[in-house]
Predict the structure.
Amino acid sequence: MLRVSSFHSIGIGNISDLIYQKLEMQRDLLECAYGIETAKSAEAAWVRLVDTLSRLKLDKVIYATRDDGDPPHWYVRSTLPNAWPSELAKTPDFSEPFVTYCCATFEPTKVGSEYLDLNSHYIDDHARDYIKAVSKFDWRAGIGIPTALKGSGRHGGFILGNAMMRYDFERSVMPLVDDLRTLCLVANARFETWRKGKTHHDIARPLSPREMQTLEMLSRGLRPKQIAEELGLKEPSVRLYLKNAKSKLGATNNHDAVRLFINRQRT
C-alpha cells in the first residue's frame, strides 16, 4: 500500500497513470485468454499470446513441457532465434532447468542471470551453462510459471522474460504475476489439447487389423453386437478391440474414435 507521503514524491497524476496502466494490462490479458480459448490452431494461439506478452515488455517466451517418464518427450515453443531450445530438446540428455527444478508446486520462480543468486544453491553446472546461453539472447530477468506439476504425467510451463535489470523487472512485471499465471494456465490447457491430438496422430501405436475393422464397421452404424455377429466373435471381444482402439487414438468415446479413425485414414 502506498503511504500518504508517497503521493508527494510520485505525484497524484503519476499514480493515476500507474493504476490506469495496470487496468489496461489486465484487460489485455483477459482479451488474450479469450483469444486463446477461441483460436482455431495452436499457431494462432501462440501468436496471440506472444503478441500480448510483448506489449507487456515480455518479449522472451519459452513454453516447455515433458513427460514424467524416461526418456522424455518434449514439447517446446519459443520466441528466441531458431525457436531455441527446440533443437536441444531433441537430444536424449536435454534438461530445461526451470522444468527440472521448479515444477513441484505452482509457485512462480524468478529466473535468469539477474536472479542467479537466488537459485545457485540447488542448480548444477548444466543449469548455469543454460542460463549463460539464454543471456546471449539478451535475456536477463524472467519468471517461470508452472502449468503442470511433476507426477501428473506431464510437467512444465512458461518462462517469460526480457532484458530488464532486476529492479526494473520487479517494478514492471512482478505485480502482474497472478494475472500472468492465469493466462499461462489457459494457454497450457489449449496447447495440451492440440499436442495430444498431434501426438496420438503422429506417434501413437498403430491400430491392429481387427481394431481397424471394428472401427470401420462402427462407422457404418453397426453396434458392437452386430459387429460380433458379422465377424463371428463374442461381443466382449469386440468391445475390447474398441477399447484398445480408443486408447491408441486418444478418444473418449466410440463417436470420437470413429472421427479420429476417419481423419487418420485421410492423411
About this structure: Residues 97 and 127 are 5 Å apart (CA to CA).
